[in-house]
Amino acid sequence: MKKSIITLITLMVSLLWVSMAGAQVLSRYEMAQEAGVKLQDLLRLHHPSLESHSLYFPRNLQLPEGEVDLQLDTMRLEDRPGRQTVPVTVLVDGTAQAVVDAVVVIRKNVTVAVLKRQLKRDDIVALGDIDWQTIQISREGFRYVSDVREIVGKAASRPVRANIALQASWFEEPVAVERGDRVRVLLKDGALVINTVGVAGKDGRVGEAILVRNLSSNKSFLARVMAPGQVVAEGL
């Protein structure tokens, strides 16, 4: 019995040795190195704004002996930064042996607006304040300014340093009416329109509603700021 078991083990080892004699192991690190170079070339060709930051394969592969080649399918890549997957076909002597999803971390180059000077809160952005820089982002979620019309003429809602990528949320409509200002008031009631003068009860930006005091009647009413020094009230 003991002799039979030893014979069986010897046979299994022999079979394993024979099966492995014509095989090779391709480590995930070797695959990552080769695929990383190919991916960079493909990105430059098809997605020039994207760059591969890192690439990862989940496991090693046992393959037949022969010349190994990797073919990457970048058609599924999205034009965005972050973690994505790339299908990689592993070939030996031109014959496909496996398809493995490589996990790749993508960075994206974007051109964004920056300031040439530091702004204090409520400073107004002029066209001459803006410059352009290309930065690399690793994730989505920030709405960087890519069009000067988004911020020119607007006020900084917070202090903003020079030479940093600008976000649209850092700017707002400037104060068009200040508390105590005399403002032109358009009183509308249907087709009737009356022009008069009032005093603003608080600061207001275009589109905001503020209290205005009528100089003639000394009564206050809500009016919407339409432009610097101008408000409109309806249905009074």
Automatic annotation (TrEMBL):
Gene Ontology terms: biological process: bacterial-type flagellum assembly
Alphabetized InterPro entries for the sequence: Flagellar_FlgA, SAF, SAF_FlgA
Keywords noted in UniProt: Bacterial flagellum biogenesis, Cell projection, Cilium, Flagellum, Periplasm, Signal
Record-linked Pfam families: ChapFlgA (PF13144)
Localisation: Periplasm
Cross-referenced SMART domains: SAF (SM00858)
One cellular component (GO) term of this entry: periplasmic space
Domain SAF: 110-172
Keyword Signal among record annotations: yes
Organism domain of life: Bacteria
Main location class: periplasm
Function noted in UniProt: Involved in the assembly process of the P-ring formation. It may associate with FlgF on the rod constituting a structure essential for the P-ring assembly or may act as a modulator protein for the P-ring assembly.
Protein name as annotated: Flagella basal body P-ring formation protein FlgA
Source species of the chain: Magnetococcus marinus (strain ATCC BAA-1437 / JCM 17883 / MC-1)
